[in-house]
Amino acid sequence: MLTNLKPQPADKILMLMQMFRDDPRSGKIDLGVGVYRNAEGVTPVMRAVKAAEKRLWETETTKAYTGLAGDPAFGEALSALILGDAVPRDRIAFAAQPGGTGAVRQALELVRLAAPGATVWLSAPTWPNHNSIVRHLGLPTRDYRYFDEATRGVDFAGMMADLEQVAPGDVVLLHGCCHNPTGANPDPAQWAEIAELLARRGATALVDLAYQGFGDGLEADAAPTRLLARRLPELLIAASCSKNFGIYRERTGLLVALAPDPATRELAQANLAFLNRQNFSFPPDHGARLVTMILTDPALRADWEAELEATRLSMLRLREQLAAELRQATGSDRFGFIAAHRGMFSRIGATPEQVERMRADHGIYMVGDSRINIAGLNAATVPVLARAIAEAGV
Fold first, then answer.
1. Where residue 196 falls among pLDDT bands split at 50, 70, 90?
2. Which helix (H) or strand (E) covers residue 55, if one does?
3. What's the average model confidence in pLDDT over 364-370?
4. 231: domain CATH number?
5. Is the predicted pLDDT of residue 295 greater than 90, yes or no?
6. Which of 51, 203, 210, 392 is the catalytic position?
7. Cβ distance 248 to 42 under 8 Å?
8. CATH number of the domain that residue 355 is part of
9. Is position 208 annotated as part of the catalytic site?
10. Of 155, 162, 170, 208, which residue is the catalytic one?
């Protein structure tokens, strides 16, 4: 049987990580892997997470399973962080998942269960795993224009023209904030137009919310998702705690299904539990319990929010510094978009050949489409990157 297996395409980011590890140069810079790093190059354990873990170690009395959908307290706490008071609680179904990727996968499993003929619309470009999961599940898919290569901003006219072709019942995957891989996001007025179009076309939105708190702040980053929740009868949200709580390896995520009424909410909740049972039975709980403790304890939450805000501001400072260094290195304002983008990523507009030249000449590693992880920089390496970009002729 196993001899019938076919080789699968290699993950380009994982390949890049291995190349970086194999590079003996001391001054090499990793801008490829999508994890937050502080100025010392470390992905830290947040203070509130450390405190919650200590408290959990002292008080936890069992490692028994939670429910099929996870601990309800986790779903309540995280969905409240995301949705606030945008919709009544009796319309919200949720189930814990192994990370944001697990939440995306389970959301698409739910789509296949409910509407197997629905087309899933993905932004061009999007996080590569979106395409991979949709194809693996055999769901029909189409792209909509999103990124303007000339302005390095959102191609809003193209996006809206393409979404006018969405059929009733189709699913449109949207990045709730901090678009990966581009860093370019619609403004509030544009989000309102997107919501109106989806309502008019009878489409369901699937929001991938992986970076709440990394862009303009917890509330501002949740605003587009809350807008969609108020305007649409149904909404799917795949939320990740990897970035904003820094618990990558705990694989902590939540799938939220907003239903049009309480009866449909009960049906959705039962189906979410069913899908969990088919895929992994009971979801992991350690990270979810830490998040619950932090969000429901005023002191832990205040400390978490303060550290998250410091993290967000550090990335904004790096963006502003890089834009300024590039202005000086190139004598041009054409990289001003870097300061305007939000989140961990930006696409700088380099060709694959220029990307390779920066790797070969300067030991700077970025994805071939020129996506850089801003959090892979620090104040000392920003000028190095700026000079490399200028020398490569980007």
1. very high
2. helix 47-59
3. 94
4. 3.40.640.10
5. yes
6. 210
7. no
8. 3.90.1150.10
9. yes
10. 208
Average of per-residue pLDDT values in the chain:
96
pLDDT at 15: 87
- On whether both 86 and 164 belong to a single domain, the answer is yes
pTM to 2 decimal places: 0.96
* Residues 270, 380 within the same domain: no
Pairing mode, strands 29-30 and 364-365:
parallel
pLDDT of residue 34: 86
Count how many domains the chain has. 2
Residue 257 falls in the annotated catalytic set: no
CA distance 139 to 161: 22
Question: What radius of gyration do the chain's Cα atoms show?
Answer: 21
Q: Is 310 one of the annotated active-site residues of the chain? A: no
* 191 and 328 assigned to the same domain: no
Q: DSSP letter string over 92-108?
A: EEEEEEEHHHHHHHHHH
Same structural domain for residues 250 and 163?
yes
Q: How confident is the model at residue 378 (pLDDT cuts 50, 70, 90)?
A: very high
- Cβ neighbors of 241 (< 8 A, separation 6 or more) are 78, 100, 247, 250, 252, 253, 254, 287, 288, 291
Write down the catalytic residue from 69, 95, 127, 388: 127
Structural domain of 22: 11-44+313-392
Per-residue pLDDT averaged across 323-339, rounded?
96
210 is catalytic: yes
**pLDDT of res. 10:** 80
Domain final residue, candidates 296, 321, 348:
296
**Last residue of one domain, picked from the residues 270, 296, 322:** 296
Catalytic residue among 103, 191, 205, 243: 243
Amino acid at 278: Q
Q: 15's torsion region: left (phi>0), alpha (psi -120 to 50) or beta?
A: alpha
